Amino acid sequence: MNAPEMKSLDINEIKQYLPHRYPLLLVDRVLDWEAGKSITAIKNVTINEEFFNGHFPHKPVMPGVLMIEALAQTAALLSFMSAGIKPDDSSVVYFLGIDGARFKRPVGPGDQLKMQAEVVRHARGIWKYKAVASVDGQVAVEAELMCTMRSVADAGQTVG
Asked: For residue 25, what pLDDT is reported?
């Protein structure tokens, strides 16, 4: 039996699935993914990141909310690819919730954030993920995330 083929995406392929752009596109490469199951991606953290100018000039640290956002983008990629959908002007992704977020290690310039998201549940258009980001094998942040895809026409309606 052959080993499963790894599925990766470069930045140009990522931009086909995520509407985010600089400075808020926080996924540089997808290393592997399996539809409806899991995804592994990376964010290369460099001193050129705009947020380091103010957070903090004397000791650059990636803001925790941006680490969570990077995990949410990674999870959104898996949602889109699992559904076989590429976003367009008629669709939007909502970040619905964060549970159990824990920050365990600071992330700074020169670090490579390895992000993993695993589907916990998918029902009625809502995806729930267990997500972990690590640097050199050390957990930096972990959380459960929820997101959903909606049409722009339904964007003003209550979710869930």
From this structure: 97
Cβ 76 vs Cβ 18: under 8 Å: yes
- Residue numbers in the chain where pLDDT is lower than 70: 1-6, 89, 154-160
* Residue ranges of E strands in 4-153: 29-34, 38-44, 91-103, 112-123, 126-135, 138-151
Pairing of strands 112-123, 126-135: antiparallel
| pTM (predicted TM-score) | 0.91
| Residue 116: C-alpha distances to residues 32, 88, 131, 160 (Å) | 10, 25, 6, 25
**Residues involved in catalysis:** 55
Enumerate residues 6+ apart whose C-beta is below 8 A from 50: 23
Instruction: Tell which CATH architecture fits domain 11-154.
Output: Roll (3.10)
Every domain of the chain and the residues it spans: 11-154
pLDDT of residue 88: 78
User: Do the Cβ atoms of 114 and 45 come closer than 8 Å?
Assistant: no
